[in-house]
Each structure stands twice: as C-alpha cells, then as structure tokens.
Amino acid sequence: MKKFTRFLAWSLTIALLTSASILSAKDKKDKNKEEGYVFTPKIEIPCTPVKDQASTGTCWSFATISFIESEIIRLGKGSHDLSEMFFVHHAYSQKAIKYIRYQGMANFSEGGQAHDVMNLIGQYGLIPEEAYTGINYGLTYHRHGELGAVMKGILDKSLETKNGFSNKSLDVLDATLDIYLGKMPESFTYQGNTFTPKSFATSLSINPLDYFEFTSYQCYPFDTLVDLEIPDNWSHGKYYNIPMDELIQIMNYAFEHGYSVNWDGDVSEPGFSHNHGVAIIPESDPKNMEENERLKWEALSEEEKSDMLFDFTKPRNEKTITQEMRQKTFDKFQTTDDHLMHLVGTAADQRGTNYFRTKNSWADDSNDFGGYLYMSEAYIRLKTIAIQVHKDAIPVPIKQKLGLK
Predict the structure, then answer these.
(1) Contacts by 157-166, CB closer than 8 A, 24 or more apart
(2) How buried is 137 (Cβ within 10 angstroms: 0-12 exposed, 13-18 middle, 19+ buried)?
(3) What residues are paired with 226 via a beta bridge?
(4) Is CATH 3.90.70.10 correct for 40-281+318-402?
(5) How would DSSP label each residue in 37-95?
(6) At what angle do helices 168-181 and 85-101 cross, to 10 degrees?
(7) 300 secondary structure, DSSP code
(8) Sign of the dihedral through C-alpha 135, 69, 273, 58
(9) Pairing of β 278-279 and β 372-376
C-alpha cells in the first residue's frame, strides 16, 4: 500500500508537471499569437480579385490593369476583368523597334512601367480578359521564358547580319507573339455588345491623360519632370520629382478621397516577406545601417542576427527614413525597380504603426492574406521608386505648384 501511495504521488507529480508544461506551451503559443501582426483596416478601396502573373516579369501590366480596374469601379462602370497580355503583346512590338534602332543597346526584357499601359491605352484601347487571355501555348498559366528567348534570338540575329532596319525581323517577331500569345482581335463581343478595343476603353471612361507619375530623388531637381533612370523605363516616361513627404502626402490624400495608388518599388529587402504578408525596414536591417551600427551588427552571432532580422512574429521598431537615405540606397542600387503592385488602402497594426494594404500579382493562394500584404510607411518611404495616381488624387497645393490641372 505504501509503495502504491508513493507510486500514486509520483504519478500525480508527473501529471501536474506535464499539465504545467502543456499550459506553459499553450500560454507561449497564445502570447506569440497575441504578439503577431494584427492589422486593423482604416481605408479600403474597392478592387478586383488577385491575379497571377505566374512565370513572367509582367508585373507592370498586372499592377496597372488592377489599378485601372479599381478606377473603373470608382467611375461607376462596374467590375471588369481586363486583359494584361493585350498590353504585353503591344509593348514587345514597340520594345523591339527601339532595340533595333539602338543596335541592341536598349532594354529588351519582360519589364516595364505603369505609363507603358497608359500610353498603349491611348494608342490601342482596352480589351477584356475573356476576349484575349494571351495564352496560346497549351498551358493554363502565363510562362514567357521560351517566348522571350525566341524573340531576343530573332532581333540579335537581325543585328548580327547588319542588314539595317529591314522590318522583316519585326514582322517575324510580331508573328511569334501571335503564335505564343494569340492574335489580338480587331473587335469582340462582351456582355452582349460589340466593341473595338478603342470603343471599349471609351465606354469605360478611361482617359490615360488623367494619370500622372511621381518619384522622389535628390539627384534630380525637385518640382520638375524628369526621365527616371531605371532600366525598365524603356519608353523614357516622365515623372514629377517631389520631396518624399509630398509623395506620402499624395498617397494618403488619394486613399482618403477614394482613389487607389499604383506602386513601383524594391522588394529585395530582408524585411520584405510576401509569405508573411509584411514589408518593413527594421532597425537591424544591415543594408541600411550606418558604420557604427554595422560594427555592432557584425559582432552579433548568426543566431542573434537571424532572430533580429527575420522575426516576423511581432511588430518591430523601424528606422526613421530620410530623403538622404532614399538617395543613398538608390545610388548604391540597393533600391531598384523590382516590382509593381497595387495599393488599395491603409491599415494599422496593434502598435498603431501605419501600413499600406497591397494587392500583389503572385496568386491569391500565395500567402495567408489571400495574395495581399502590408507595407509599412517606413518601407514605402525608403523603397518606393515611383507611384501613379489619378490627377484628382493629388492635393491641390501640389497640383498648383507643379502647374497641373
């Protein structure tokens, strides 16, 4: 009996310790859950479902089309799924001409900028996705690796033969685009009506001249139109260069008045995690450290560095971003035009930090936020290359200063 009593006491002790351990683990899990990012929406701009650019570098078309789709909703014209590949097809044709004219020294890649779509709308109009999917190669998703290699081969071989501007290589390139993406229709039937691409754009009240782009760098004069020197600005579009604070002012004004923002920027930072749905500039980001900060950073162990840098389980302290920091990272190619995305609102985390709700084009099942992510204001301040907005989304004092109507 005594042995049994001792055994019972021992068993109860083990049970209590196990229970305490389980409760401790649960408490820790609950604490981590509480510490995780909790976003409270502040402003939400209506937008269409998330799409997938898949295996292509055509974010410029996906982001800008998403932006235009929200504009169409704002204008009271309903929700429409527009074709991104309509603009990709046209853009490749125009890039090819420049590539030949510049004897192979121009950029011929999948990338582009927001104004490329607006320019092409002015020339060719718009078309719905159901009338032109841009997939003519037996897949259900976009993949342009082979297409890009074939087109580049056509153009390079034309230059190699030194036949000058015969146009034949361009004809072959356009035929290649038709083979891979499909031949673009001159007219189509949509929702019971027959349109041309231009009449369709007119029916949706989209005027590409109503949209302006802004950047913010000290290497250009402020309050002037500049040719932003980034590789994907192949068409040499012009941007208004304004101070960083005014760039943020435009964005906030746009959201407060029911407009969304088309965003171009850098997504190569350690603080950018689409998987976690967060983009921040942590104080410990080594890419943006001053010399004294870097020395302290390098003295840490690898485990300490990893914990500080890649901890997305709770809100973090972030750097205060200055105009000088923007310029420094731009000059050192630490801020590059990696990606375009559509900003569709604002939110705050549980610490009150401001974020911009961002619609990405990496599929709706690419993270736990349905393909969206939240970029902090610090991230936006440092890593924004440029933005595009409707003219009425610009605060009046800034419009007057720049001479915009």
Answers:
(1) 158/100, 159/100, 159/103, 159/104, 165/100, 165/101
(2) middle
(3) 239
(4) yes
(5) ---EEEEE---PPP-B--BSS-HHHHHHHHHHHHHHHHTTS----B-SHHHHHHHHHHH
(6) 160
(7) S
(8) positive
(9) parallel
pLDDT band at residue 168 using 50, 70 and 90 as cut-offs: confident
Torsion of CA 115, 52, 356, 399, to 10 degrees: 10
195: its two tokens: 């349109």
Q: Judging by beta carbons within 10 Å of its beta carbon (0-12, 13-18, 19+), is residue 8 exposed, middle or buried? A: exposed
How far, in Å, CA of 224 to CA of 15, rounded? 73
Residues 347-375 have pLDDT tens digits of: 999 999 999 999 999 999 999 999 999 99
Structure tokens at 124: 């060719």
Whole-angstrom Cα distance, residue 287 to residue 270? 9
Neighbours of 390 (CB within 10 A): 21
Q: Which two tokens stand for residue 381?
A: 């301040």
Strand partners, 388: 213, 262
Q: Across the strands, what pairs with 386?
A: 264
β-pairing, 211-215 vs 384-390, is antiparallel
* E-state strands within 176-252: 188-190, 193-195, 211-215, 224-227, 238-241
Output the pTM of the full model: 0.87
β-bridge mates for residue 307, sequence order? none
Confidence of residue 300 (pLDDT cuts 50, 70, 90): confident
CB atoms within 10 A of CB 203: 15
Contact by Cβ (8 Å): 84, 61? yes
Residue 87 to residues 112, 160, 168, 176, 325: CA-CA distances in angstroms? 10, 28, 22, 15, 35
Which of 130-144, 297-311, 320-334 has the lowest average pLDDT? 297-311
CA dihedral angle for residue 399, residue 405, residue 200, residue 183, rounded to 10 degrees? -60
pLDDT confidence of residue 283: 81
Q: Strand, helix or coil at 272? A: strand
